[in-house]
């Protein structure tokens, strides 16, 4: 695979603070990449370096086989959609969308044609004459998207574009962003700290931590088989059971000896990860012992249950079906399938 976007050993240092530390990433054309991580992880700095707004201390950026490291944002085949959209309030919708084309001196008739096509693409056909103040939050985002896409960038960069929207509108815009990316076939690089948003949008999730890439892969692989303990902790809820490898595929824990596939040597300190939906009460192969319900919260499709093991100081988080009787203090015999346990080094 020839990388459409190549991030090669990028570092960025501010005084004594290292914001990015030897970050490398190769992205194929047409990917929807989500940079995910907590505040201060380096994801926004990386996006800014790709867009040319931040000059790296070391490393190079290449897009479509061309080194763009020394290029300004205006010279690069990228456009950026910021969280606040940065629309011009004194311009009409059409004026905003066509601003980049005007800067590029695209002739008037061609400019009008491309503005109309971009507005139709984002579902705003016929809105060109309206003022920005007349548009709702979701419509303003569509205007910003049209403005970004009308210049036909190789890569669209999105800096937490859904952060200012309410929950229902955010989910609607997630669907629209994904559909738009698929229709255009362009590469999107999207920054967020929201794990659910990343899972909904990405073909490639890049988990960042302390200026480094902690893990990267498909949303399914990142969630089900995280490569590191940080990734497992950051990507959704899980029960974490600490232990020591005692032999071939055996780990001694406070709730007893558990068996799982692993490559860790005897004596290694490990953590076994099991997701809430994989903890069962029907007697699966791996017995996790008895636990008592401490809290149960009804969440529509399931109960989110916190339970405490009767043996050892071990907490569990699990999901129970909405029609199950859930009572505080009730005992549950917990289990999981062998393939549901992920063993990670400490």
UniProtKB/TrEMBL annotation:
Keyword entries, A-Z: ATP-binding, Nucleotide-binding, Transport
Keyword presence, Chloroplast: no
Pfam families (UniProt xref): ABC_tran (PF00005), TOBE_2 (PF08402)
Signal peptide segment: none
Protein name according to UniProt: ABC transporter ATP-binding protein
Listed InterPro entries: AAA+_ATPase, ABC_SmlMolc_Importer, ABC_transporter-like_ATP-bd, ABC_transporter-like_CS, Mo/tungstate-bd_C_term_dom, P-loop_NTPase, Transp-assoc_OB_typ2
Domain ABC transporter: 5-235
SUPFAM superfamilies: MOP-like, P-loop containing nucleoside triphosphate hydrolases
One GO molecular-function entry: ATP binding
Residue intervals passing through the bilayer: none
């Amino acid at each position: 695979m020839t990388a459409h976007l190549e991030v090669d050993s990028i570092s960025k240092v501010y005084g004594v603070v290292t914001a990015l530390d030897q970050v490398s990433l190769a992205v194929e054309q047409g990917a929807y990449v989500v940079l995910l991580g907590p505040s201060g992880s380096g994801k926004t700095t990386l996006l800014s370096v790709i867009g040319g707004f931040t000059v790296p201390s070391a490393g190079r950026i290449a897009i479509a086989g061309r080194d763009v490291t020394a290029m300004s944002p205006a010279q690069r085949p990228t456009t950026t959609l910021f969280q606040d959209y940065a629309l011009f309030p004194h311009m009409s919708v059409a004026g905003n969308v066509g601003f980049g084309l005007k800067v590029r001196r695209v002739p008037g008739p061609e400019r009008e044609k491309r503005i109309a096509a971009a507005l139709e693409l984002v579902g705003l056909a016929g809105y060109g004459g309206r003022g920005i103040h007349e548009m709702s939050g979701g419509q303003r985002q569509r205007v910003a998207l049209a403005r970004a896409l009308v210049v036909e960038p190789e890569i669209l960069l999105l800096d937490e574009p859904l952060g200012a929207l309410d929950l229902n509108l955010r989910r609607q815009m997630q669907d629209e962003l994904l559909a738009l990316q698929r229709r255009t076939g362009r590469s999107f690089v999207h920054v967020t700290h929201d794990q659910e948003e990343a899972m909904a949008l990405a073909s490639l999730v890049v988990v960042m931590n302390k200026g480094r890439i902690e893990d990267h892969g498909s949303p399914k692989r990142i969630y089900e088989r995280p490569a590191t303990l940080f990734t497992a902790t950051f990507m959704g809820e899980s029960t974490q059971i600490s232990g020591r490898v005692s032999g071939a595929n055996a780990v001694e824990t406070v709730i007893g000896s558990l068996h799982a596939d692993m490559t860790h040597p005897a004596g290694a300190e490990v953590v076994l990860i099991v997701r809430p939906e994989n903890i069962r009460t029907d007697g699966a192969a791996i017995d996790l012992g008895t636990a008592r319900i401490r809290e149960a919260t009804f969440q529509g499709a399931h109960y989110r249950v916190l339970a405490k093991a009767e043996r050892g100081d071990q907490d569990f988080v699990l999901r129970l079906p909405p029609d199950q009787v859930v009572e505080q203090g009730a005992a549950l015999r917990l289990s999981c399938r062998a393939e549901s346990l992920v063993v990670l080094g400490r």
